[in-house]
Design brief:
heterodimer, A: 2 domains, two-stranded antiparallel sheet, 14 helices, 2 strands, globular, B: Penicillin-binding protein 2a (Domain 2), Beta-lactamase, five-stranded antiparallel beta sheet, 23 helices, 21 strands, elongated
C-alpha cells in the first residue's frame, strides 16, 4: 500500500476540515441511502408476514454494510485503481473455484464455503469488473482503440460466462452491463456501438439454443404467456401484477395488502417485494421510491462529473448506471415486462450479501466524492 | 502508456465522458418513465380489474396433485394402489374463535388429546392461511356429521386426498418399498412445483427408484373464493396426469409361497426368470408392513422395527452380504475346466485334511471327522458331496486372478444393476482388492479360503440368484430386472453382448453334477428329490457366521443359535430347459441341504405348477 493511500490526514494544510470531509462522508448520498434503508425495513416487516426476526437480521446486514462502506471510503481512489487488477484476478480465481468446490441449493453453485463463513464471488465481481475495466481504459488514450475495447470486453465476458455457468443469469446480466457501461462511458465509438447492437441481435438465437437452460427459456416463454405456467413462474407474475394493480393510487395501507398477507404472492420478501410496496402504498409509494432512487443516481452522476481522474469518473459513472439496471430489471420483471431472473430490489429486498455489496460500491463512490480537489 | 499520455487531451476526454454520461442519464430517465407508465397502467388504468380480482372474489390457483402410478404384479394383481383418505383441517384465519371451534368439533367427533396437541404444535409452524390438520382418516359417519354441521363450523374443512396403500402388506415390503412424507433434506432437492399438493415421495425400493415415473405431473385449478377464502366455484381446470403404472415380473403367488416357506426364519430368497432376467420373487424375512410409513409412522412403532434384533427393515436380498460358502463351487469348477486346470478324470484322495506346502497347520473339510470323502474324488463327486479338500487344490492351481476375473462375469463383486436403490456390491477378492482394503499382499491361504467361498468373499442373495441364472442359461450375462413394463410398454431385457466363454461340454458336465446334488443318492440336497416330477440342479452351501479353530469341532448344541452357520442354496429348474433360477439364504439355518433347499423346492413346485396350468389354458 502506498504511503498516502490512506487519506485520512487530519492535518493536511489548507484541507477541508468539516467532519464529513475528514470522515469521507458524502452527506447527500448517506441521507438518501438511509432513507432507502428505512423504506426497505418498513416494507420488509409487512412482506415477511410481520416478522421482527427478518427485520432484525436485515437491519444487522445494513449496519454491516454501512460499516463496510465507511471503511471503503477511507481509501483514496488511487488505491482502488492500483488494486483493481488484483481484486479482479482474485475474484476470477474464486469464480473458477466455485465451479469445482462451490456449494449451493437447487442445482446452482454460487457459494464458496470458507469454514467460518460463506462467500459469493459473483457479488465481488459486481464491483471488481467496473473497477478493472475503468482502471484499464483510463490508462489509455480515449476514445479507446479497437484492441483496448477488445481486451476490456474480454475482461467483462470472462466473469459473465463463469457466473452464467453457475447458473445465475441475473448476476451475470448485472456484471455484463457494468463492463459495457465502463467501455461506453470511456467513449466507445459509434461504429462499435452499432456493430455491438447488431452482434447482440445475432447472438439471441445462439443464446436461446445453446446457452439458456430449459428453466430459463421457460421464464422467457412465461413472460409472453403467464397463463401457461400457473403453478410456477407464471403464477408469480399473475399474482404480482394483481398485487400491484389492486394497490391503486394510495394502496391498501401498511400490512393491509391482501395479496401479500394472504400468501398469494410468492417470494414476497425477496425478489417480489416491490409488489408488496405497490399493493400497500399504491402508485404514490412506487413513484416515491423511484424518485429516491433517481435522486441517488443523480447524486452519483454529479460525483462522477466532478471526479478528479478518469478512473474515478468511469467507476462512478459505471456504478451509478449499473445501479439503475438493478432497479429496472427488478421492477420490470415483477410488473411483467421483463422475464423473471433472480434479481433483488436494492436496499428493499431481503438478503445479506447483496446489501453489503451495494454499500461497498457506494463506499468507493464516497471515496471519489471526498477526494481533495487538485488545483 | 507514456506515449498515450503524451497524446492525451484531458479536457477533450472529459467532454467525451460528460457527453456519454448525459446519454446514460437520458436513457435512465426514459426507462424510468417506461417503468412509471407500466405501474400507472397496472395501478390506475386497470385498477378496477385488479381490485375486483383481489378484493371481492379472489381467484386462487390450487394444485391438483396427480394420482401416483399403480404397481401390478405380472398377473395384473395390484400390489401398490391409492386410497382416498379424509382429514379434518382448520384454517384459523377463517374462524372467528378457534377455541370455540375446537370444542364444537370435539362434541361432534372424537378428538384425542394427541390430535389437539399435535394441532397446536403445527399451528405455530404453519404459514398464514395454510390448512392445519386436526384429525386424520375420518370415518364415513364422521364425514357425514361434519357435512351436516358445516354451516356453523367456519374454518373447519374436510380435505380428501389419495394415500398410498399396499394391499399385500409385509409380503412386498422390501422390493416395492414405500412412500413417506417429504422430509427437509428431500424438499431441498426436489422441484417444488412438481410436488405442489403432493406431500409424499418414494423412500426405498421401487417406489424410490421409479419416483420420477410414478409421480405423474401436477394439474391446477382456479377457484373463486369468497372474502373468507372459502372456495365458491371452479373457474378453470387443468387435469393432473397420473403417474406411470408399473408391471412387475414378480408373481405375487410365487412371492407368497417363498415368503411362507421361510416359516419365520430369517433369510432372503431371489428367484429369477432365466430367459429375461426378470425377478419372479424377492423375499427378505422378517418383513414389516409398509403401510405404517405412508402417513408417518409413530415413534414407538418405528423404534420397534429399527431396534429389533431380527432387523426387519434390512433388505437382505440386496444389502445382506454373506460368505457364499460352497454355492460357488460349480462356478469355480467351470472356470478350472475351461482353463484346462482340471479335467473330469483328475482324482484326488481325500482324508479330511489339506496341507499346503510350507504351512504346518492343515485346512480341513467340514466332515473331516468321518475321515474325508475317501479315494477317487473327481470334480463331479466334489460337487455332489461338496468336498472342500478337492476345491482347496483346485483353487490354488487355478489362482485367484482367474477365479476373480471369471467370478465378476458371473455377477460377483459388483452391483448387478437391478432397478432398486441401495444395492451392495459384495466382495470378489483379488490381489488389488486386498492391497487396497487391507494394505496386504495376497497369500495362497487367502486363495484356499476363497476357493470354498469363505475368507474375504461376500455375496448378496441377489448375486447368488444372478450367478445361478447365468449358470442355468449357459453364460448369458443379463441384468436382473423388477419392472417388466411401464404403462404397458415392455422394458427391454438388459443383456451384455458377450456371454461367458465356457465350452458347451463343460456346461453339460456341471449341469449334470448339479442335478446329481439333488437327484443322486449321495447328493447334499437329496432330501428334496422325493416326489419330484421334474429335474432340479442345485448346490448347497454353508457359511460360517463365526470362525471355528481347526482343532475344534463345530457343535451347534454348544453355541447360541444366532451364531449357527448360515444355510445357502443356489438352484435352477427344470434342468433340460432352465426357466427359473434361485439364490437363497437362511440365516443360522446350519445346513443348506436341510433348511435352505426345501424352501427352493417349494418355490420350484409352485412355479412348475403355474407353468403347467398356463400351458393347459393355452391349449
Amino acid at each position: 500500500m502506498h504511503r498516502d493511500d490512506f487519506v485520512r490526514q487530519l492535518s493536511s494544510p489548507g484541507g477541508d476540515r468539516r467532519p464529513s470531509r475528514v470522515l469521507h462522508i458524502d452527506i447527500p448520498l448517506l441521507l438518501l441511502l438511509l432513507i432507502l434503508c428505512g423504506i426497505g425495513l418498513t416494507v420488509l416487516y409487512s412482506a415477511s408476514g410481520q416478522s421482527i426476526f427478518y427485520v432484525k437480521r436485515q437491519a444487522t446486514f445494513m449496519l454491516v454494510g454501512l460499516f463496510s462502506m465507511m471503511i471503503m471510503a477511507q481509501f483514496k481512489p488511487r488505491f482502488w485503481e492500483r488494486g483493481s487488477a488484483l481484486i479482479y484476478v482474485g475474484g476470477l480465481a474464486s469464480l473458477v473455484a466455485v465451479l469445482f468446490f462451490g456449494v449451493g441449493a437447487k442445482g446452482a453453485q454460487r457459494w464458496l464455503d470458507l469454514g467460518f463463513t460463506r462467500f459469493q464471488p459473483s457479488e465481488l465481481m459486481k464491483i471488481a469488473v467496473p473497477m478493472m475495466v475503468s482502471a484499464y481504459l483510463s490508462k489509455r488514450y480515449l476514445p479507446p482503440q479497437f484492441k483496448h475495447v477488445f481486451f476490456a470486453t474480454m475482461a467483462t465476458l470472462l466473469p459473465v460466462f463463469l457466473v452464467a455457468k453457475q447458473p445465475d443469469l441475473g448476476t451475470s446480466l448485472i456484471i455484463f452491463s457494468s463492463g459495457f457501461f465502463a467501455i461506453f462511458l470511456a467513449g466507445l465509438g459509434k461504429r462499435y456501438l452499432i456493430s455491438t447492437g447488431l452482434l447482440a441481435l445475432a447472438a439471441v438465437p445462439t443464446l436461446w439454443f445453446y446457452v439458456l437452460l430449459d428453466y430459463q427459456k421457460q421464464r422467457v416463454l412465461t413472460l409472453l404467456n403467464p397463463e401457461d405456467d400457473k403453478l410456477g413462474a407464471g403464477w408469480n407474475i399473475i399474482q404480482s401484477t394483481t398485487a400491484i394493480g389492486s394497490g391503486g393510487w394510495s394502496g391498501k395501507g401498511w400490512t393491509q395488502g391482501t395479496q401479500s398477507q394472504l400468501n398469494f404472492l410468492p417470494e414476497s420478501h425477496t425478489d417480489f417485494i416491490i409488489a408488496v410496496l405497490a399493493e400497500e402504498f399504491g402508485l404514490i409509494g412506487v413513484l416515491t421510491l423511484l424518485l429516491v432512487y433517481l435522486l441517488l443516481i443523480g447524486r452519483c452522476m454529479v460525483i462522477a462529473l466532478n471526479a478528479q481522474t478518469m478512473f474515478s469518473r468511469l467507476v462512478a459513472g459505471t456504478l451509478s448506471l449499473t445501479f439503475f439496471v438493478y432497479i429496472f430489471v427488478n421492477m420490470g420483471m415483477v410488473s411483467g415486462i421483463l422475464p423473471v431472473v433472480g434479481a433483488p430490489l436494492p436496499f428493499i429486498s431481503y438478503g445479506g450479501s447483496a446489501i453489503v455489496t451495494l454499500f461497498c460500491g457506494f463506499g468507493i463512490l464516497m471515496a471519489i466524492s471526498t477526494e481533495p480537489k487538485r488545483i | 502508456m507514456m506515449v498515450d499520455a503524451a497524446f492525451s487531451d484531458p479536457a477533450r476526454e472529459r467532454m467525451l465522458f460528460a457527453r456519454r454520461l448525459f446519454v446514460g442519464t437520458l436513457v435512465t430517465l426514459i426507462l424510468s418513465i417506461v417503468l412509471s407508465l407500466r405501474y400507472f397502467d397496472l395501478q390506475i388504468s386497470r385498477y378496477e380489474n385488479f381490485a375486483t380480482q383481489s378484493n371481492n372474489n379472489r381467484v386462487l390457483v390450487r394444485p391438483l396433485p396427480p394420482p401416483r402410478g399403480l404397481i401390478y404384479d405380472r398377473k395384473g394383481k395390484l400390489v401398490a394402489d391409492n386410497r382416498p383418505s379424509y382429514n379434518l383441517t382448520i384454517v384459523p384465519e377463517r374462524s372467528d374463535d378457534v377455541e370455540q371451534l375446537l370444542s364444537d368439533l370435539g362434541q361432534l367427533i372424537t378428538l384425542s388429546k394427541r390430535d389437539i396437541r399435535r394441532f397446536r404444535k403445527n399451528l405455530k409452524r404453519r404459514r398464514p392461511f395454510e390448512q392445519t390438520t386436526l384429525h386424520v382418516n375420518l370415518s364415513e359417519a364422521e364425514r357425514a356429521i361434519l357435512a351436516v354441521n358445516g354451516h356453523r363450523l367456519n374454518g373447519a374443512e374436510t380435505s380428501a386426498r389419495l394415500i398410498r396403500h399396499y394391499p399385500f402388506q409385509d409380503l412386498f415390503a422390501h422390493a416395492i418399498g414405500y412412500v413417506g412424507r417429504i422430509n427437509e433434506r428431500e424438499s431441498q432437492t426436489i422441484e417444488s412445483v412438481k410436488y405442489s399438493g403432493t406431500d409424499s415421495i418414494g423412500k426405498v425400493g421401487l417406489e424410490k427408484f421409479y419416483e420420477s415415473q410414478l409421480l405423474g405431473s401436477v394439474g391446477s385449478e382456479q377457484v373463486e373464493t369468497n372474502a373468507r377464502g372459502r372456495a365458491m366455484r371452479v373457474l378453470d381446470r387443468t387435469a393432473a396426469v397420473p403417474g406411470d403404472n408399473l408391471t412387475l415380473y414378480i408373481d405375487s403367488d410365487l412371492q407368497r409361497v417363498a415368503f411362507e416357506a421361510f416359516n419365520g426364519e430369517r433369510g432372503a430368497l431371489v428367484a429369477i426368470d432365466v430367459e429375461t432376467g426378470g425377478i419372479l420373487a424377492m423375499v427378505s424375512t422378517p418383513s414389516y408392513d409398509p403401510n405404517l410409513f405412508v402417513t408417518g409412522i409413530s415413534q414407538t412403532n418405528y423404534d420397534g422395527l429399527l431396534y429389533s434384533k431380527d432387523r426387519p427393515l434390512f433388505d437382505r436380498t440386496i444389502r445382506g452380504q454373506y460368505p457364499p460358502g460352497s454355492t460357488i463351487k460349480p462356478m469355480f469348477g467351470l472356470i478350472a475346466l475351461q482353463n484346462n486346470i482340471v479335467t473330469p478324470d483328475d482324482r484326488i484322495n481325500d482324508n479330511g485334511y489339506y496341507y499346503f506346502e510350507g504351512i504346518e497347520r492343515p485346512w480341513r473339510d467340514h466332515n473331516f471327522a468321518r475321515g474325508g470323502h475317501g479315494n477317487g474324488v473327481n470334480l463331479s463327486k466334489a460337487i455332489i458331496e461338496s468336498c472342500n479338500i478337492y476345491f482347496y487344490g483346485l483353487g490354488v492351481k487355478t489362482g485367484i486372478d482367474l477365479l476373480s476375473n471369471y467370478g465378476s462375469q458371473f455377477g460377483l463383486g459388483s452391483t448387478t444393476g437391478i432397478d432398486m436403490p441401495g444395492e451392495r456390491p459384495g466382495i470378489m477378492p483379488n490381489r488389488a482388492w486386498k492391497k487396497g482394503a487391507h494394505g496386504q499382499s495376497w497369500f495362497n491361504g487367502d486363495t484356499i479360503n476363497a476357493s470354498i467361498g469363505q475368507g474375504f468373499m461376500l455375496t448378496t442373495p441377489l448375486q447368488l440368484a444372478v450367478m445361478s441364472a447365468r449358470i442355468a442359461s449357459r453364460g448369458d450375462v443379463r441384468s436382473p430386472r423388477l419392472v417388466k413394463s411401464i404403462n404397458g410398454v415392455e422394458q427391454p431385457s438388459l443383456q451384455a453382448e458377450d456371454s461367458i466363454e465356457i465350452s458347451a461340454k463343460h456346461w453339460d458336465y456341471m449341469h449334470q453334477a448339479m442335478e446329481d446334488v439333488v437327484h443322486s443318492s449321495r447328493g447334499t440336497a437329496r432330501s428334496i428329490s422325493k416326489g419330484l416330477d421334474y429335474r432340479i440342479a442345485g448346490k448347497t452351501g454353508t457359511a460360517q457366521a463365526i470362525s471355528i479353530d481347526a482343532e475344534e469341532k463345530y457343535d451347534s448344541s454348544k453355541i447360541d443359535k444366532r451364531q449357527w452357520d448360515h444355510a445357502l442354496f443356489v438352484a435352477f429348474a427344470p434342468v433340460e430347459k432352465p426357466k427359473i433360477a434361485i439364490g437363497l439364504i437362511v440365516e443360522n439355518g446350519e445346513h443348506g441341504g436341510s433348511s435352505a433347499a426345501p424352501i427352493a423346492r417349494a418355490v420350484f413346485d409352485a412355479y412348475m405348477q403355474s407353468q403347467q396350468s398356463t400351458t393347459l389354458v393355452r391349449r
